[in-house]
Amino acid sequence: MATDTAKNLKKYEAMLQTALAEARAGLAEGGIPIGAALFTREGELLGKGHNRRVQEGDPSAHGETDAFRRAGRQRSYRDKIMATTLAPCWYCSGLIRQFGIGTVIVGESVNFQGGIAWLRKHGIEVIDLRSQECMDLLAQYVKAHPEVWKEDIGED
How far apart are CA 71 and CA 91, in angstroms? Predict the structure, then answer.
C-alpha cells in the first residue's frame, strides 16, 4: 500500500461507510445493495446514491451513476474520489474514465471484479478495501436473488 494510501486509510474507510449506508438503503427499498458516494479530495460529500434499477425499472440506475448525478456538475473530476461498495461494472467504469474521476475506493471485488484492472491501466487509482461487510451484504443478496443479480451484471 502506498504511503499516501496508508495515510488516508481512515478517510477512505469513512467514505466507504457512506456508500455502505446507501447500499443498505437500497436493500431496504427492495433493490440491489450497492451504494456509492462522490467526495472531494478533502472528504467533502458531493453526492451519494444507490442502485435503483429494481425500484425505478431503470437499467442505468447503478449506484455510481446515482451518486454522480446527485453530485451535480463539477468543473473537474480529476481530484474527486468515488467510494463504492462493489467494484464498478463496465458501465460505471466507463463513467469514471469518461469524467476522469481520479480515485475509486472499492468496498470489495470478490463477488464481482468489474473494470478494476482497466481503470488502473488508464491511470485511475483504485483502492480495494476488501470489506467483509460489503462482501457479505452482496453475497447474501446474490444467493437470495440470483436472477436479479445476473440481470444487473448483464449475464443470462
Answer: 18
Q: What's the predicted TM-score (pTM) here?
A: 0.94
User: In angstroms, rounded to a whole number, what is the distance separating the alpha carbons of residues 144 and 146?
Assistant: 6
Contacts of 67 (CB under 8 A, 6+ apart): 19, 22, 35, 36, 37, 38, 47, 48, 49, 82, 84
One DSSP character per residue, 68-93 reads HHHH---S--TTEEEEESS---HHHH
CA distance 37 to 104: 10
Active site residues: 64
Cβ contact 51:34 at 8 Å: yes
pLDDT in tens, 47-87: 999 999 999 999 999 999 999 999 999 999 999 999 999 99
Asked if residues 31 and 54 have their Cβ atoms less than 8 Å apart, the reply is yes
Q: Is residue 85 within 8 Å of residue 111, measured between CB atoms?
A: no
- What ranges in the chain are assigned the alpha helix state H? 3-7, 9-28, 53-56, 63-71, 90-99, 116-121, 132-144, 146-152
